[in-house]
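Researcher: Please predict.
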Amino acid sequence: MIYLTQLIYIKEGQESLFHEFENIAIPIIAKYNGRLLLRVRPPENSFVEFSIDKPYEIHLVEFDGEQDFEDFKQDDERKNFLHLKEQSVRSILLIKGTKQ
């Protein structure tokens, strides 16, 4: 089992394009033995302390294995809509881990 945490930073004014991409990409996770465990859009007042930019969204996803995640990234339907992600996302910090 692998866990992926994403801190997602959106280009200003591109939120609707990002949501459009997520509406397509998130359901595809399940096709590749994955599960979206958390999708958080933290309000400004929820940050107690920080030394990096505050993300627009935080995702926690699990896949049964690394190959499942790689297969998800290569999914043809998802790839057809990557332009929405590219137009709306400024950057993503991806953190990979395992459960202990």
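Model: Strands lie at 2-10, 34-40, 57-63, 89-97.
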